[in-house]
Amino acid sequence: MDLVTAVVAWFADPAHWGGANGVPVRLAQHVGISLLSIGIAAALALPLGLYIGHTRRAQTLAISLANVGRAIPSLAAIAIVVPFTQMIDPGRGFNLYPTIIAMIVLAVPPILVNTYAGVAEVDRDLVETARGMGMTERQVLGRVEIPVALPVIVGGIRSASVQVIATATLGAVYGLGALGGYIVEGVAQRDDGRLFAGVVLVAVLALGAEGGLALLQRRLTAATARPA
User: Whose CB among 28, 107, 151, 227 lies 3.0–4.6 Å from 160's, allowing a Cys bridge?
Assistant: First the structure.
């Protein structure tokens, strides 16, 4: 049985679509972990990026934070925090929390860099005109800089989303499950059908996120370029 046939046969088996380890459950787990990680990363990175981009202060700090986040391998990040999270919660502290923390570390750099770069690159004449009209700094940021920079900001979230979806599979090494569980189980059981079915599912999910956010980014770019 060749690889394609094995993967098709795996997907065609009704047993793989029901129960706690079925595709719908594991897909929901993967989506939930990814959304939570990206949401927390955005909550951390967006305010800092907006502040740095608007004030032009601490740009070196932003670059340094981004470089540190990119330099830490995600699997190593999971391993580093496991002892601490397991002390807090012996159950989920071994698989769930370390994976989410590692994914947050992975997602913060692209969101932070794109946010501050997008705001900082807004036409200064446009910003000064808004100030000349009597707008406060908060109004300048909210009404001028953020709308113009929004496509770039979404580009950072887009990049982070694809990276998190693909890399969250590493949590399965620590027993997290989700879609990465199929890959780890396939390797352990020498089951190529299961292994590559997991790869296909992760790829489809990542491509779906990439396509959806790319479409949103294009529409925002077109709306920004449209004359007022």
Answer: 107
Contacts by 12-16, CB closer than 8 A, 24 or more apart: 16/197
Cα 39 to Cα 41: distance, rounded to the nearest angstrom: 5
Q: What is 3-11+22-223's CATH number?
A: 1.10.3720.10
Backbone φ and ψ for 175, nearest 5 degrees, come out as 85, 20
**pLDDT for 40-93, tens place per residue?**
999 999 999 999 999 988 888 777 877 887 788 888 888 898 888 988 888 888
User: How many Cα atoms sit within 13 Å of 224 on the Cβ side?
Assistant: 21
**Which residues, 6 or more positions from 105, have their beta carbon under 8 angstroms from its beta carbon?**
69, 72, 74, 77
Both structure tokens of 74: 């995600």
